[in-house]
Amino acid sequence: MTPAAFRKIIHLDMDAFYASVEQRDAPELRGRPVAVGGARERGVVAAASYEARQYGVRSAMPSATALRKCPELVFVPPRFAVYKEVSRQIHAIFAEYTPLIEPLSLDEAYLDVTENLPGIESATQIAREIRAKILVETGLTASAGISYNKFLAKLASDYRKPNGQFVVRPGQGLAFVEGLAVGQFHGIGPVTAARMNQLGVFTGADLRAQPVELLTRHFGKAGRYYHAIAHAEDHRPVVPDRVRKSVGSENTFAQDLHELPELLAALPPLLADVWAYCERTGARGRTVTLKVKFADFQQITRSRSGVGPVPNAATLARFSHELVEGLLPLPKGVRLLGITLSNLEAGTEGAGQQLKLAL
């Protein structure tokens, strides 16, 4: 067995994080369907409480759709400063157990506890202690997945949500994966899952039966990853302080935009957000990407890369303007615009021994 097979990985995921913070801080919201986001016509749900999810309300859903599904839905505006502070508390608890913390967002992270600071042999016990401390210190619940690699730990954390944990032990990985629908696999989105279904691949067992050559022919380099996870294999280490590869900003408009002057007038706030990050961190990126969502929710992107990193805000604005002008003539109204700077360089900020595996 390789050293990776002896890792003890925990995936910690807060339960309905933004919405749970709002229910914690406003007792009158407890037990009610809550959505964090804008209730205006063009608003979008950023997060939904479990009570709202019972009606089919999900994050990234248009607010109007969410209200049709759940007329009693209560919208609250996001308070990102509060969420960041709670996230800081949670990560401080993680750091009591291991320095190997790979944040995925404010509310979830991978932890490698193979060798941990308290010297606890059982990763299951560590996960239980962390979840208990989070509840005491923040009043919020978290779910955990424990396994010998990141892929299985991520899957396992969804298995007992909310406020639970699940372990996939060595020797159980193949059986755990084979019965799951491919759409449940982290890294396989709805579009890819639909393509797999067209090939007759519906479950992990179906995916495992496919030759790697067939998967790479249909899915390119990702085919090897799909082949590996179908065999419950994932050798990626937990990487603390991951280098950020892109920075972006986007806005959904109250009314569709139809004319070039309107589109150009919408860019300055987005450009200001992106360049503020660059100034703060010293990061510079080579590729500018324009994201466009039309009134019918069709989404496209257009990109431009320079010979070297974008040197200043004026160049970022010029590239962005050229990308917007390249959309003309507009086929339909524009609902959303976004600008992302990627291939970041310099100044970007982050996000073993073979042991007995006592998960």
From TrEMBL:
UniProt-listed Gene3D superfamilies: 3.30.70.270, 3.40.1170.60, 5' to 3' exonuclease, C-terminal subdomain, DNA polymerase, Y-family, little finger domain
EC number, UniProt record:
2.7.7.7
Identify the CDD domains for this entry. Answer: PolY_Pol_IV_kappa
Chief localization class?
cytoplasm
UmuC domain span: 9-189
Q: Which domain of life is it from?
A: Bacteria
Which UniProt keywords are present, listed alphabetically?
Answer: Cytoplasm, DNA damage, DNA repair, DNA replication, DNA-binding, DNA-directed DNA polymerase, Magnesium, Metal-binding, Mutator protein, Nucleotidyltransferase, Transferase
EC class of this enzyme?
A: transferase
Tell me if Flavoprotein is a UniProt keyword of this record: no
Q: Where is the active site?
A: E108
What does this protein's record comment on cofactor binding?
A: Binds 2 magnesium ions per subunit.
Catalyses which reaction? DNA(n) + a 2'-deoxyribonucleoside 5'-triphosphate = DNA(n+1) + diphosphate
Q: Which residues bind Mg(2+)?
A: D13, D107
Cofactor(s) essential for the protein: Mg(2+)
Pfam families according to UniProt: IMS, IMS_C
Q: Where is this site: Substrate discrimination?
A: Y18
Subcellular localization = Cytoplasm
The free-text function statement in the UniProt record for this protein reads: Poorly processive, error-prone DNA polymerase involved in untargeted mutagenesis. Copies undamaged DNA at stalled replication forks, which arise in vivo from mismatched or misaligned primer ends. These misaligned primers can be extended by PolIV. Exhibits no 3'-5' exonuclease (proofreading) activity. May be involved in translesional synthesis, in conjunction with the beta clamp from PolIII.
Family from the record: Belongs to the DNA polymerase type-Y family.
Assembly with partners or alone: Monomer.
Q: What is this protein called?
A: DNA polymerase IV
In its UniProt entry, the species of origin is given as: Hymenobacter glaciei
Query: What is the name of the gene encoding this protein?
Result: dinB_1
